[in-house]
Amino acid sequence: MKKFRIPRPEKPRSFEEKFSAEGDFFGSREKKGKGKYGRLPRILLCMLGGLVLTIAIMLLGGLWKVTDVVAEDGQLYTAAVVEQFADLETGDTMLGFDSFAVAKRLKKGLPLLDQVKVRKHLNGKVTITFSEVTELYYTRHNTNYYIISAEDREVLGVFSNPNEARRVGAVYVGLPEATRVRVGEKLSFINLPYEPDSVPEELVTYELETDEPDVEYAYVFEFVETVMASPLAPRVTGMELGDRYDIRLVLDGRILLKIGSMAELDRKLTMTERSLQDRVEEGKDDGSLPVLVDVSDPTRIIHRASPDIQLPDWAKGLA
Question: pLDDT of 47-92, one tens digit each?
Fold first, then answer.
């Protein structure tokens, strides 16, 4: 009977043989050949791949063109206006403009835009989505009118007349003379020199209650924030804050509210709201005449309705 020899399994390799530079983990320990061209440096392969990719981008970039620019209407700006300021035309190469640069151009040309996103699509379509600043104030400084963001007090734009501010529903705020107003910056205050009659002309002094203007005029922001957080906010047409001891507020374009100082402001606003509501319910105010409401003394409230009451020009839409 013929005998068959069963081969013995190969002796396991040592750790050094398995993982040495010339060892092969899968069993073969033969050295690998260098091939026909030897070992081509990897950096050369990377450079070659980058060159091919660059050529492909250049070729495809000439074919990838803008076919359409689309935006949606907002509350303050129409889609047509946004598309116009984007300055993109059909046929422009998609690689020829930067989306972030277009968004920056839009915010510069349309200052009431808040967030802007410009997206490119493979089919050549460019979409522009945006949000707008919703809470706005405007003020007059020298001969110009400035629109201000209520959220961060940044000056967004300047206009020669107040119509643009009124169009977007901004609330008028009359500010102290010492206000510093510059587009792109936040509202701030500075020290203004003056020359009293008793002081020689060559000497300049300052009339201050404190050495820090921002502290001196902090009541401005405090008043605005308190009023706009009150139930009267939807009715506010504007306010005069130039004199801290003679603060005035106009409601509904015809109710002149004399606040006086900041003392007990919350109480004064609450009294005004209740009083105006009571007068309407009692039929004492039909909304046809200007009304003067004096709450400068929080212990009493005075009403007077008369066509002779003088409202500020900005409340009548004249300035």
Answer: 877 777 776 665 555 667 888 888 888 888 889 999 889 888 887 8
- Rounded Cα distance between 194 and 203, Å, is 9
- What's the one-letter identity of residue 192? L
Q: Which CATH architecture has domain 217-319?
A: 3-Layer(aba) Sandwich (3.40)
CB half-sphere exposure, 227, CA atoms < 13 A: 28
Helix 218-228 with 265-281: angle, nearest 10 deg: 40
Q: Give residue limits of the domains in the chain.
A: 63-132, 134-175+177-210, 217-319
Reported as a single tens digit per residue, the pLDDT across 163-199 is 888 888 899 999 998 898 998 899 998 876 655 555 5
Cα gap 171→133, rounded to integer Å: 13
Please provide the CATH number assigned to the domain covering 63-132.
Answer: 3.10.20.310
